[in-house]
Amino acid sequence: MTFLTIGHRGVMGVEPENTLRSFVRAERAGMDAIELDLHLSKDGALVVMHDADVDRTTDGKGPIADKTLAELRELDAGQGERVPVFEEVLDAVHAPLQAEIKDVAAARALAEVMRKRDLVHRVTVSSFHDDAVAEIASLVPGVRTVLIASRWGADIVDRAKAVGAGALALNIRRLTLETVEHAHGEALQVIGWVVNTQDQLRLVRALELDGATTDYPEIRRTGRFTA
After folding, report:
1. Which domain of life is it from (predicted)?
2. Is the model's pTM score more than 0.90?
3. pLDDT tens digits for 158-181?
4. Are the CB atoms for 89 and 10 separated by under 8 Å?
């Protein structure tokens, strides 16, 4: 497999995260794929935002689930950017996407869009939640899935296999060669996150990872030589 450099929420180190501006810049930087996060609005729109609340990344306050799409559109998501919906990202960039779903309800909404727009070859679906990974796999035959973990036990590979995931996305600060070798031995790819420094790139190389998620566009360029 070719080593993949994945833009984290676009390139959130230099642009407002999870905005069209950030995604377009990630594509222009040559990222192999672009990662984004999905929640459902009060009226069922597939909203691109990381947190469950709008407080950190916009000038608003409160849970996404308590706001309609129209209300979310009124918020400034950074540098005048508006909160996008998933379909807008699909139209704004052409790069492969890694869509992280936050709950099972979002999985169902994403599945509907993926079936309607035939996205199984363009969109990989990831989640921290085993049941969300299993749900999207049952709803979209052939979808590529990734189980994410920040902290995990010895059963992480078994968990990924149980829900049919083809890859693990694991916190680079806690990743060990033992875990990588176990995953590779079971034909699972391993992606490290978040890789933002040269030292972390060297660790990526030492661990023989299949990919890295980064906040910065220059990591893609230097990663060609380091990882």
Report:
1. Bacteria
2. yes
3. 999 999 999 999 999 999 999 999
4. no
